[in-house]
């Protein structure tokens, strides 16, 4: 899953017609065809990570058209130090939850580490589980051109697959940590070749992570499918970040996903206020009451009970 962007562009998405993201929700379900049309019309669209039905419901109400159930759930939900630890079954369940919460959003399921790398057959089978059990509209794979055969098989099976190129967090340990991609002309050529090969193999979208804007612009100009950026500059058709970063809930955020609200501080304030209410007994009016007749019956019951040790028996 991406390591964490924000939309901008020549035209406001709130005027783009049916299925368009707006501040009062989505007019119609968003599909791959919707994103293709927005690319042709120059409409920039937002994408956010999401891991539960409740958050998905509010993000759909906000008009966010694309939600990614990312393997960052390993970090922000399960507390692991890296995305490598995201369990396949867990992500499939989360994807279904997000789709139930936001049925009009296009929901992408993130295929986790070793869910598709061991064999193409296993990859297709696991992607199929995201589509059936997970109710996903598409699956995302961290890939380079060597995965083109797998994308062809998925396309043949009717599975919309998103190619995540550039910096690939599942490969971070091969580089000694998180890394940027395409910072030399030769590396840029490699990214372009990855993009073209995976598009030719049937990728319905591209996601480029952590690459110079000039490289992203080159790729966007050469491919036909919509391109989502994650720390790849403003030239992409869409932008994705980790929602928890924008909420200010993470200890560290990348430069392209600075918090828009300070939810962490609000949570501390809320928890502190609740702690104080509990300690002082100031819980407000209790909503569950007994009528006078039942109170009298309860008093009879109480007096009929044998004494307890607390009563000095």
Quick overview:
Helices cover 39% and strands 13% of the residues. By secondary structure, it is α/β, with parallel strands linked by helices. The N and C termini lie far apart (64 Å).
Overall 3D form: elongated
Rg estimate, integer Å: 25 Å
Q: How many alpha or pi helices?
A: 11
What is the total domain count? 2
Strand order of the largest sheet: 3-4-5-6-7-8-9-10
Mean of residue pLDDT values: 92
Helix coverage percent of residues? 25-40%
- N-to-C SSE string, H for helix and E for strand: EEHEHEHHEHEHEHEHEEHHH
How many β-strand runs? 10
Ranges where pLDDT stays below 50 over 5 or more residues in a row are 1-18
- The CATH homology group name of the largest domain: Phosphoenolpyruvate-binding domains
Structural class, by secondary structure, is alpha/beta
Please state the second-level CATH architecture of the largest domain: Alpha-Beta Barrel
Estimate the strand proportion. 5-15%
Described by its quaternary structure, the protein is single chain
How would you explain this protein's 3D organization?
The longest helix has 18 residues, at 263-280. The chain has helices at 32-41, 53-61, 73-76, 88-101, 120-132, 148-157, 185-200, 213-222, 243-246, 263-280, 292-304; strands at 21-22, 25-26, 45-49, 66-69, 106-110, 138-142, 161-166, 205-209, 227-230, 238-241. The protein starts with 20 loop residues before the first strand and ends in a 9-residue tail after the last helix. It is an alpha/beta fold. The chain has 2 domains: 13-263, TIM Barrel, CATH 3.20.20.60; 267-311, no CATH class. The radius of gyration is 25 Å and the shape is elongated.
């Amino acid at each position: 899953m991406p390591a964490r962007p924000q939309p901008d562009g020549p035209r406001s998405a709130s005027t783009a017609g049916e299925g368009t993201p707006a501040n009062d929700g989505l007019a119609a379900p968003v599909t791959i065809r919707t994103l293709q049309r927005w690319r042709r019309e120059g409409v920039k669209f937002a994408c956010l990570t999401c891991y539960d039905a409740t958050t998905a419901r509010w993000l759909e109400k906000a008009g966010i058209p694309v939600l990614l159930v990312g393997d960052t759930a390993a970090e922000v939900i399960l507390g692991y130090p890296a995305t490598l630890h995201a369990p396949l079954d867990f992500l499939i369940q989360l994807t279904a939850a997000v789709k139930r919460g936001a049925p009009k959003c296009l929901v992408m399921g993130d295929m986790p580490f070793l869910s598709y790398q061991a064999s193409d057959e296993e990859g297709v089978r696991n992607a199929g589980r995201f589509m059936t059990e997970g109710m996903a509209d598409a699956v995302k794979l961290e890939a380079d051109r060597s995965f083109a055969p797998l994308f062809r098989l998925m396309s043949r099976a009717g599975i919309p697959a998103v190619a995540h190129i550039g910096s690939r967090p599942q490969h971070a340990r091969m580089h000694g940590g998180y890394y940027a991609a395409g910072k030399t002309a030769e590396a840029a050529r490699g990214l372009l070749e990855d993009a073209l090969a995976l598009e030719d193999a049937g990728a319905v979208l591209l996601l480029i992570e952590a690459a110079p804007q000039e490289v992203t612009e080159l790729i966007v100009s050469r491919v036909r499918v919509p391109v989502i950026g994650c720390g790849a500059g403003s030239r992409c058709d869409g932008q994705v970040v980790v929602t928890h970063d924008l909420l200010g809930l993470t200890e560290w955020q990348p430069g392209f996903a600075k918090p828009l609200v300070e939810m962490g501080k609000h949570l501390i304030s809320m928890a502190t206020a609740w702690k104080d209410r509990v300690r002082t007994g100031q819980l407000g009016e209790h909503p569950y009451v007994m009528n006078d007749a039942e109170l009298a019956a309860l008093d009879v019951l109480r007096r009929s009970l044998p004494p307890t040790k607390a009563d000095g028996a």
